[in-house]
Structures are given as structure tokens and as C-alpha cells.
């Protein structure tokens, strides 16, 4: 079969954004074989999970770029990926498909309510994918699916009430209440766009969103704007702060304060047992986790302090969550 444009033939070992190889992808355990797709604005992660829960053919493929609504271009890409995966592994017969996407997602209705970077609004993605792929489709939000994977197999597996926070270029979140995702029709979990200050302006159109202050992307951007120096990401700003750079220290301190404020509000309202933090900023280690623990304890009084733990499934959590959701249909 001719490989998909912009991608090589499917390999059985692929590195994800954190450098993790297929061998490190956590097995789902025994269950029905399933196709899984994690669609992002830049790339699509795909794999075929066999009956032992092993991911086969894991890889990234560029997300099609077209003007306006990308729905049908993405479905074409998923169809081609599914065919390649099946051809490469004819011994594995998938029973269902897991599909997760960004934006506002009504998983129960199977609808992509809105995603500005995908150009869709009220798109019946589950039904369209089912028609195209010829299999039952489990449809969900990418970060909610990742949170479900962390609950089943990763850092949140010991907790039924948890917040999963992914801090990267932006900030995304999901809530687990009583061991189940709390969705509110797709609108719950927008922690990155919770207001924590009067500014700066956020690309979403609001002001003072957590994401505009404390995401890895915002930390690097704010340092660049303040100094004219282009840092090598948030990690570079944090290292400069530790080395005595006063501008970097002020930016990192304000990011920590913003995260503390957001976690304090979540603790007071939702009272999670744990906050599981993933994304690129989570690799800051003690500079992030120890400081947040200290500041959160100082901020609150009678509240039950959540345990702060790192996510365990790295960049594969959304894909694993998609596969787990697909298995629930069989």
C-alpha cells in the first residue's frame, strides 16, 4: 500500500514528544483489539492495540491542513491510517475504534461542539467516523481520555476524586469525581481558562487566564517580551531563575503563584484527593512540585490538601485513553 503523504511506512517503534519509545508504552492488559486515534492540531497519534493490550504500529502523522473545516480531511486520514494498520498487522482484527479530539467535546452526543484550530462546530464526529471506519466508535475529549488512562493505569489510579492538569504550550485539565469523568456536556475542565488575574490577554479572548500566565508557552513568551532574549523554552527560564536571573525568577514566581491560586480554588470547591500534573512543565520536578506543595499548604487552612503527583503515561495518555474507551464498547 502507498504510504500516507508526509509519513513513512508504519514502524513498530516510534518515539513520542518526550522521547519515550514504544517499549515504554504501558500495556492495557487483556481485552478486545482496538484501533486508537488521538487527533491534535499538529499531528495524529495512531496505533492498533492487540488482545494483550500491546500497541502495534504506534506513530505520529501530520494532521491535514486545509482551509476552514478540517473534519473530512481528518476522516480521510484516519481511514487511511486504519487501512495501513490493518494491512501491517492482519493477525489483529479490531473490534472497535477509540477517537479523541481537542476543543469542546460532547462525548455523550458524539459531537465536536467547537474547536477553533480544527474549524468545526457541532460536528457529528462519532457518527461520521463510524460510517467511514465500519466499526463502533468511542468518542471523547483528548485530555479527558488521558485522565481516564491516568486513572486506570497511571498516576491517578489510587484516587477516585482527582484533577488531571496538563501543562505544556497551553494548560488543559479534566476532573474525575467518584471515579468517573465530570464533563458538563464538554464544558468542564477548562482549568487553563479559569481567570486568576486581570491580565494579560489570553488568545481565547478573555483576560487573566491561568494559561496566559503559567503555561510553559507563556513562561517562555513572557521572558522573551521582558528581555528580548529568546529562551530555550520554560525549562531555560526556570534554570535562569535558579541561577539568579531576577527577571526569570519574577516570571517563574508569578507562574507558581497563579498555579497555586488555581489549585487552591479547585481544592476549596472540588476537594480532589490528588492533582496529577503532566505535560512538559511537569518535568521541572521539585522546582514545580515542591514549590506548589509549600505554597498550597500556606494558602489554605482547614481544607484537605490534595496529593500532588506527576502523570505517568507521558504523551501517550490520550492514545491509551482512546483505546480503553474503545474496549468499553465491546
Automatic annotation (TrEMBL):
Pfam families per record: ROK
InterPro entries: ATPase_NBD, ROK
SUPFAM superfamilies: Actin-like ATPase domain (SSF53067)
Family: Belongs to the ROK (NagC/XylR) family.
Protein name: ROK family protein
Source organism of this protein record: Microbacterium sufflavum
